[in-house]
Automatic annotation (TrEMBL):
It comes from the Eukaryota. It is a multi-pass membrane protein. The chain crosses the membrane at residues 54-81, 93-117, 180-204, 210-231, 251-271, 283-304, 311-331, 337-362, 374-401, 421-441. One of its GO terms (molecular function) is transmembrane transporter activity. GO terms for cellular component: membrane. Keywords: Glycoprotein, Membrane, Transmembrane, Transmembrane helix. This is Major facilitator superfamily (MFS) profile domain-containing protein. It comes from Fusarium torreyae. Pfam families: MFS_1 (PF07690). It is found in: Membrane.
Length: 452
């Protein structure tokens, strides 16, 4: 009996030793990666110095900041641009809208290409192209030239936005550092836009609007040059034939083309017909409170997003922001700005800034490691396309209600009626966001946690 027990013990020990050796001999895939995607080119965060990690975040956020700055600049300078370039009324709004339209229409395609060839090359191409096109916008002599360059600028921005998410997830591991990087990417957009409004107003009244394009373009080229040094190469260096083969096989050209075409046509049909602008000083005063709070919310979200459940972060942010359109819907023209309008400006950026950080964290966790650029493209497409569609719908509502009231009330009251209708519609949309968020995120816990 003792002999049999000894043999059994020896056999079990030998089998266990074989299993242990087998486990040691098999390379395990990193946690959270797609085992089928190990052949994809990846960036290894452990091989990147801390200085380069900081430089990558600065470069990605800086290019986005400069692009948003140009959007704010063109809004403030549009009357002067229209006058100087003799832009026909049929194209008067296109310098503003065409860039966002081109970005939304090409993001998915840019993300798919970046996943196939690696994010470094497409990002640098998009950044340098963006800078050159901005400088070109300052040299144009015709309105049609400006519209064409702004459209191409939107394509370059799409390449950058899609690659930004992939580069960030490759360089920074999951945890607080990545959360803060996503927050920086988020705050660079409203901060750049607000800075563009203020700077544009100053330049238009002094040395001219063209200087703003030279400044934005020069900054973009500078940040792109930093990217040449900071953004690391892929761990694998496929030859040209392999890259071409990957682009042919891994990019859904038909699907991406159809999606881009559909969004282009739909945005075109819903394009704005007329826009009213405040003076530069008035616009600056009104957007400063929201800008400051938006920056604070982004940074706070980046620091604490991993400490609280995403459900409560998103729900609370949406509820607070839903108060903003309600305040504007009941406002009276005789009331001072520091009443309802001021508090509405403080509350309105909370939800979008919270959702940008949380949304990027969630979507990058869901997508495999070899499709992070596509993940960024999907998220940014939703943001760009949603903005274009909702703004167009709100303008249609405002225009229809104002036209309906023109025969009954004075011009100012008729316009105010249209604005009120738009704000009530915004309130309804925010309530829908709250409902969808509560249902869709009810089982989502803490996000952005560091994984060992």
């Amino acid at each position: 009996m003792a002999t049999m027990l000894a043999q059994t013990t020896t056999t079990s020990t030998h089998r266990q030793a074989q299993e242990n050796m087998l486990e040691l001999s098999i390379p395990l895939a990193p946690q959270g990666t797609n085992p089928l995607a190990q052949s994809e080119p990846e960036l290894v965060s452990g091989h990147v110095s801390r200085l380069k990690k900081v430089a990558v975040v600065v470069q990605l956020s800086g290019v986005t900041f400069a692009s948003s700055l140009s959007n704010g600049l063109v809004i403030v300078a549009l009357p002067a641009i229209t006058r100087d370039l003799e832009l026909p009324s049929s194209l008067a709004f296109w310098p503003i809208s065409v860039s966002g339209l081109a970005t939304a229409s090409t993001l998915l395609l840019a993300g798919s290409i970046a996943d196939a060839v690696g994010p470094r090359g497409p990002d640098l191409v998009g950044c340098f192209a963006n800078g050159a096109l901005m400088i070109g916008c300052g040299l144009v002599q015709k309105g049609t030239e400006l519209v064409a360059l702004r459209a191409l600028q939107g394509v370059g921005l799409a390449m950058h936005l899609a690659c930004s998410v992939s580069i960030t997830t490759s360089v920074l591991p999951q945890g607080k550092a990545r959360n803060l990087a996503f927050s920086c990417l988020g705050l660079s957009q409203p901060l750049g836009f607000s800075f563009g409004l203020v700077l544009g107003g100053i330049l238009v009244d002094t040395i001219g609007w063209r200087a703003g394009w030279f400044l934005a373009g020069g900054c973009t080229v500078l940040f792109a040059t930093i990217g040449l040094w900071a953004i690391p190469q892929s761990t694998t260096n496929p030859n040209a034939s392999n890259v071409i083969q990957d682009v042919k096989e891994k990019v859904d050209w038909v699907g991406a083309g159809l999606a881009s075409t559909a969004m282009t046509l739909l945005c075109y049909l819903l394009a704005f017909q007329e826009v009213q602008f405040l003076s530069a000083i008035q616009a600056s005063i009104r957007i400063v409170p929201g800008t400051i709070l938006g920056v604070i919310v982004n940074l706070v979200t980046g620091f604490f997003v991993h400490k609280l459940p995403a459900f409560w972060i998103v729900t609370t942010g949406c509820i607070l922001s839903s108060i903003a359109p309600l305040l504007m819907a009941v406002i009276q023209p005789s009331w001072p700005y520091w009443g309802n309008a001021f508090f509405a400006q403080l509350l309105q950026p909370i939800s979008c800034n919270v959702l940008f950080t949380v949304g990027l964290i969630v979507i990058t966790d869901i997508f495999p490691t070899d499709t992070q650029a596509l993940a960024g493209a999907v998220f940014n497409t939703a943001a760009q396309f949603g903005s274009a569609i909702i703004l167009a719908i709100l303008q249609v509502i405002s225009a229809l209600v104002s036209k309906e009231k023109e025969g009954e009330e004075s011009g100012t009251n008729a316009k105010m009626g249209g604005y009120r209708a738009s704000f009530w519609a915004m309130l309804g949309l925010m309530i829908s966001c709250i409902t969808i968020g509560m249902i869709g995120l009810r089982k989502v816990g803490k996000v952005g946690l560091k994984k060992d």
